[in-house]
Specification:
The complex is a heterodimer. By secondary structure, chain A is mostly helical. Chain A is built from 12 helices and no strands. In chain A, helix 2 crosses helix 11, helix 3 packs across helix 6 and helix 3 packs across helix 9. The radius of gyration of chain A is 22 Å and the shape is globular. Classes of the chains: A mainly alpha, B mainly alpha. Chains A and B meet through helix 1, helix 3, helix 5, helix 6 and helix 9 of A and helix 1, helix 3, helix 4, helix 5 and helix 8 of B.
C-alpha cells in the first residue's frame, strides 16, 4: 500500500489540532476558579459545575432533551424498520416517490423546517409545543434510520429468513430471531444517529419554544447573554458523555460500522 | 401507518409556509412579500453574502478535509482508529458546544491572541470574532466531518494497487494523485462539497455565535423576522426563496453527478 506523503500528514495533524484544541480549552476553562474565559487557567474549582445544577434551566432542559431523544429514537427505529422492509423487499406503486420523500427532510434547511412547523402548529391551534417538538424530531430522525436500515436489510440475504420459515418459524419469529440479530450493527448505528440528531438539534427546535425548551436552546441563550464558564462546564460534561458513548459503540459494534 | 403521518406533517408544514408567503399580515392574497425581498437591497444582501461566504469556505474545507480523508484511508489501522475517534466525537458533539468552544480559541481573550500577546508578537488582540473572518473560520472548521466521511468512504474502496502501479511505471507522486487518485474519488468529493456548501449556506449557529449580531447570514435573518419582528409571511417568503436556492443547487449537482457517472 502507498503511504501518504508529508503534505497529507501535515494537513491532517493541523486539522486534528484544530478539532481538539477548542475542546481542551473548554474543559480547561470549566475548572477555572475565576469568572474570565481565558485559557490556560490558574487554580482549580468545581463551582461552575455546581452552578449548572443550581440553575434549574439546565437540569430541566436536559431531562426534556433526553426523553425527547429517547422517544424520537424508539419511534423512528420502529417506523424506520417498517419503511426499510417495505423499501428493500417489496415493489409497489410510488416507491421512488416514497424514497425521495423519506429522505427529503435532510435537504430542507433547518430554519425552513423550524419555520414550517411553527406556522403549521399555529394554524392548527396546537399551543403546547411538546407535540410539535415530538413530530419535528420524528421528521428529523426518520431519514437516518430509514437509510441505514434499508442499507443493512439490502445486504442481508433474505433466504436465511426464508429457511427459518420453511423450518416452521412464523414470519415474525423468523424476523426477530434471525434478521434482527444479523443486522444489529445497522440497528445500533441507526439508533445512535437518531438519538444524537434529536438530542443536539438547535436550529429547528428553537422555533418551538414555550415555557420549556431543549438543552441546546438553553445553552445558546445562556452563552449569548452571559460570559462566565458555566457553559464550559456543561459543554465539558456533554463532550465527556459523547466520548463515553463513542467508546461503548466502538467496543460493541466497532466504529467502522458507525461511520458507514 | 405512522410513517405516513410524519411525512404528511413535514409536507404540510412546507406547503402551509409556502401558502403563507403569498399573503400579507392581514391575510389577503399578494405577491408583496417576494417583491419586498427582491427589491430591498438590505435583505438581498443576506442572500448574496451567504452564497459568497459558502463559495469560498467550501473549497477551503475541501483542501483541509481531503488530505485528512486520504491519510485515514491509507494508513495503519491504529492511526485510522484514532482519527475516526476524533471525527466521531466531533460529529456527535452538538454544533452549539463546538462553536462555543471556538470562541475560547479565537476570541479577543482566546488562546491564539494570548499566545501572540505573551510572546510580544502583537501589541493589541487581533479582532477575529464578531465579523466575517470569525464566521468564516467557523464555517471552514465545523463542517469538516461532513466533508471527510464521504471522501474517506470512496478513497478506501479505491484499489491502492492502482497507485502503486502508476508509481512503478514512473509517475511522480503528484502525477499519480492528479491522474489516478483524484479522478477516482470525485464522487466522494462531490458529495462532500454539496453537504458542506448547503451547511454553510443555511448556517445559523455559527453566524449567530461567532458573528455575535454584527455579522448575520440568511438563516439568522429569517429567524429574526419570524420570532423577533413577528412578520411571519415575510419570513416565510425568505424561507421559500432559500429552499428554492437549495433545490436549484441540488439539481445542478445532480446534472454534474450524472455527467461524472457517464464519463467513467
Amino acid at each position: 500500500m502507498r503511504r501518504p506523503g508529508w503534505f497529507a500528514w501535515s494537513v491532517t495533524i493541523f486539522v486534528v489540532i484544530c478539532m481538539i484544541a477548542p475542546m481542551v480549552a473548554v474543559i480547561g476553562v470549566s475548572f477555572n476558579p475565576h469568572a474570565e474565559m481565558t485559557f490556560p487557567t490558574t487554580g482549580f474549582s468545581l463551582k461552575w459545575y455546581a452552578n449548572v445544577f443550581q440553575r434549574e434551566q439546565f437540569p430541566r432542559s436536559f431531562q426534556l432533551s433526553f426523553w425527547l431523544a429517547v422517544a424520537a429514537t424508539l419511534f423512528s427505529l420502529t417506523v424506520g424498520m417498517l419503511c426499510a422492509i417495505a423499501l428493500s423487499r417489496f415493489r409497489f406503486f410510488g416507491k421512488g416517490a416514497a424514497v425521495t420523500l423519506l429522505s427529503s427532510p435532510l435537504i430542507v434547511p433547518q430554519v425552513v423546517l423550524g419555520m414550517g412547523f411553527l406556522v403549521l402548529l399555529s394554524q392548527l391551534g396546537i399551543v403546547s409545543s411538546l407535540v410539535g417538538l415530538g413530530i419535528l424530531h420524528a421528521v428529523l430522525t426518520l431519514p437516518y434510520t430509514v437509510q441505514v436500515l434499508t442499507a443493512s436489510l439490502a445486504r442481508f440475504p433474505e433466504s436465511l429468513e426464508e429457511s427459518a420459515v420453511i423450518h416452521g418459524a412464523n414470519r415474525f419469529v423468523a424476523f426477530t430471531r434471525i434478521t434482527v440479530p444479523c443486522i444489529k450493527p445497522g440497528i445500533v448505528s441507526a439508533a445512535i444517529f437518531a438519538f444524537v440528531t434529536s438530542f443536539e438539534n438547535f436550529t429547528a427546535s428553537q422555533f418551538l419554544v414555550w415555557d420549556r425548551t431543549t438543552l441546546p436552546v438553553e445553552i445558546y441563550a445562556y452563552a449569548t447573554l452571559e460570559t462566565d464558564p458555566t457553559v464550559c462546564a456543561i459543554s465539558a460534561m456533554l463532550i465527556m458523555m459523547t466520548a463515553v458513548v463513542v467508546i461503548i459503540a466502538e467496543r460493541w459494534i466497532g466504529l467502522e460500522a458507525v461511520t458507514k | 401507518m405512522p410513517g405516513v403521518l410524519v411525512i404528511l406533517a413535514f409536507v404540510a408544514a412546507l406547503t402551509i409556509t409556502g401558502v403563507l408567503s403569498f399573503h400579507d399580515q392581514q391575510g389577503a392574497l399578494t405577491l408583496k412579500q417576494y417583491q419586498r425581498v427582491v427589491s430591498d437591497s438590505y435583505y438581498l444582501e443576506y442572500f448574496w453574502r451567504s452564497l459568497r461566504i459558502a463559495f469560498y469556505c467550501t473549497p477551503t474545507t475541501l483542501l483541509l478535509g481531503y488530505p485528512f480523508a486520504y491519510v485515514m484511508a491509507r494508513s495503519s489501522s491504529g492511526v485510522r482508529l484514532a482519527l475516526t475517534l476524533v471525527l466521531v466525537v466531533q460529529f456527535f458533539t452538538g454544533d452549539v458546544v463546538r462553536v462555543y468552544a471556538l470562541i475560547l480559541v479565537f476570541g479577543n481573550n482566546g488562546v491564539i491572541n494570548r499566545f501572540l500577546l505573551d510572546f510580544g508578537l502583537i501589541d493589541a488582540p487581533i479582532r477575529l470574532l464578531f465579523r466575517e473572518a470569525g464566521v468564516a473560520i467557523g464555517l471552514i472548521l465545523i463542517p469538516l466531518p461532513l466533508m471527510i466521511f464521504p471522501i474517506y468512504s470512496v478513497l478506501k474502496n479505491i484499489e491502492s494497487n492502482l497507485e502503486v502501479a502508476a508509481t512503478s511505471l514512473g509517475a511522480s507522486p503528484i502525477r499519480t494523485f492528479f491522474h489516478i487518485t483524484l479522478p477516482l474519488s470525485l464522487p466522494g468529493v462531490l458529495a462532500g462539497v454539496v453537504l458542506v456548501f448547503l451547511f454553510d449556506l443555511t448556517a445559523y449557529v455559527i453566524p449567530g455565535m461567532l458573528g455575535g449580531g454584527y455579522f448575520k447570514m440568511i438563516a439568522n435573518a429569517i429567524q429574526e423576522q419570524a420570532l423577533a419582528i413577528l412578520d411571519t409571511p415575510f419570513a416565510a417568503a425568505m424561507a421559500m426563496l432559500l429552499l428554492a436556492i437549495t433545490l436549484v443547487i441540488l439539481y445542478l449537482v445532480h446534472l454534474v453527478g450524472s455527467r461524472l457517472r457517464g464519463a467513467t
